[in-house]
Design goal:
Two copies of one chain form a homodimer.
Chain A lengths: L1 E3 L2 H13 L4 E6 L5 H13 L2 E6 L19 H11 L3 E3 L3 H4 L6 E5 L7 H4 L3 H16 L3 E5 L3 H13 L5 E5 L19 H6 L2 H14 L4 H13 L4 E10 L13 E10 L2 E10 L1
Parallel strand pairs in A: 1-4, 2-3, 2-6, 3-4, 6-7
Antiparallel strand pairs in A: 8-9, 9-10
Helix pairs in contact in A: 6-7, 9-10
Catalytic activity (chains A, B): (R)-pantoate + beta-alanine + ATP = (R)-pantothenate + AMP + diphosphate + H(+)
GO biological process, one term (chains A, B): pantothenate biosynthetic process
InterPro entries (chains A, B): Cyt_trans-like, Pantoate_ligase, Pantoate_ligase_C, Rossmann-like_a/b/a_fold
Chain lengths: 281, 281
């Protein structure tokens, strides 16, 4: 595994590889790698000649007052994991090399970026679209891999790739969960023991919602039931959204349809957690 | 010369060419080709294995109430010109193929886009940055050619290319003028005979400004003198900006510096005309 820190050098390496006809699988991450990331990386390895993983805690996707400063960083442990899986390149830029003095270009995906998480994290998806656009131009992947846990992010990136005519396949992989159902997330590291237990309420609510939808319940009734499940958990401090949505538009599903997105965002203590399920009935 | 209308096909062609090690020179245009465009295309031909010209009147860069509908379109005459110069590919997409239903991604270069022309053409440079980003991903040029007449545009595109890590050389070519000094522009076609004569006042003012700066005049005095020259021309209906600016920031130059941008934007009748000179003292 080679570690590359300079964007220009990474771009030259990728260019050479693509010129030689190699396919590049790319997994962009913010580090604090967990089994969710590992599963994306393994998939990228299977499907491509070369695998590139980036670790970059992207300041532009944190809203003011969010956890940019305290976001978990453990590059040495991440590197060990990546060496074990045997990836080809770790792209590890610093903030100044991706956002030098005078930086002023931003990519916005309108509409989708203002819904669900976008309502609670102003500027978040603009930061995501911008850094992913930059990383795509640097790494020049054939395929890029994202987790379904960040469903809205994957939808926005697909939209950006189509709209800006990128020649990249976006592969969205299913969410990896702990045994008790909690979705893998770097932010789970923030939870104390009690909070960690109570966080399982999210998947419980999603499963309850799935069951009801499959039984033919109305989306609005399902939402109320999910809310009820979550409200029983006393450590939940703030419910940002819970409900049944259209998987394409992210609008609330008010009538029956064939596919639904069940999605939850809430805070346990100070820790914001999200999760979702796609349901076909 | 092959004419390609489908973005996906153009992208495949470019990808194949680049994989074969060919360099691609790209000249994006809105058609109504004049000698200014022709000089860019000739330069692209000299410096690259393959030359691609696009003709696309981009709706997203026209502000509401501007001349999108009446912008001069003469594809047959343009094609003849391009065939004479012997370019390799004409990329001629329609609006629906570049902005299909549901399109929602925009690229913004903050700061620079709000100055000079940006003040008078809200959204213009967002439209420019967006379509150029798309065209760059479709055509995958080695080098892209722009005219200095649209100085602010070239500055914004350079910024976007650097910020979004595109691997493309932006080549800015000097302005081509009629014998009487008027900068070549597709919009000159809007001018009647009298207006066409009075339009020469723009270059006269720029030349006057250059002379004074080289003689050591203060930027603010130069601006006043240029204004005076222009105000003598009775067909000038609206002066949008006239003055001496910093070529990097586009802010008004208030003190002496080594390089200046002299720039003018005004309306003669309903026709908006711009021009500029870079001056080193």
């Amino acid at each position: 595994m080679e570690t590359i820190r300079i964007p220009r050098i990474m771009r030259e390496i990728s260019k050479d590889l693509r010129a030689k006809g190699k396919s590049i699988g790319f997994v962009p991450t913010m580090g604090a790698l967990h089994e969710g990331h590992i599963s994306l990386i393994k998939r990228a390895k299977q499907e491509n000649d070369i695998t590139v993983v980036s670790i970059f805690v992207n300041p532009t996707q944190f809203a003011p007052g969010e956890d940019y400063e305290k976001y978990p960083r453990d590059v040495e442990s991440d590197k060990e994991k990546l060496q074990t899986i045997e990836i080809d390149y770790l792209f590890l830029p610093d903030v100044e090399s991706l956002y030098p003095k005078g930086y002023s270009t931003y990519v916005t995906v309108e509409g989708l970026s203002d819904k669900l998480c976008g309502k609670f994290r102003p500027g978040h998806f603009r930061g995501v679209a911008t850094v992913v656009c930059k990383l795509f131009n640097i790494v020049r992947p054939t395929r890029a891999y994202f987790g379904q846990k960040d469903y809205q992010q994957s939808l926005i990136i697909r939209r950006m790739v189509e709209d800006l005519n990128f020649d990249i396949d976006i592969v969205v992989c299913h969410t990896i969960r702990h045994e008790d159902g909690l979705a893998m997330s770097s932010r789970n590291l923030y939870l104390n023991e009690q909070e960690r237990k109570s966080a399982t309420v999210i998947y419980k609510a999603l499963q309850q919602g799935e069951k009801l939808l499959k039984e033919g319940a109305e989306p609005l009734d399902v939402k109320l039931k999910m809310m009820e499940v979550i409200k029983k958990e006393s450590l939940v401090k703030e419910i940002q959204y819970v409900g049944v949505f259209d998987p394409e538009t992210l609008d609330e599903a008010k009538e029956k349809q064939k596919k639904y997105l069940l999605a939850v965002a809430l805070k346990i203590g100070d820790t914001r957690l999200i999760d979702n399920l796609l349901v076909e009935v």
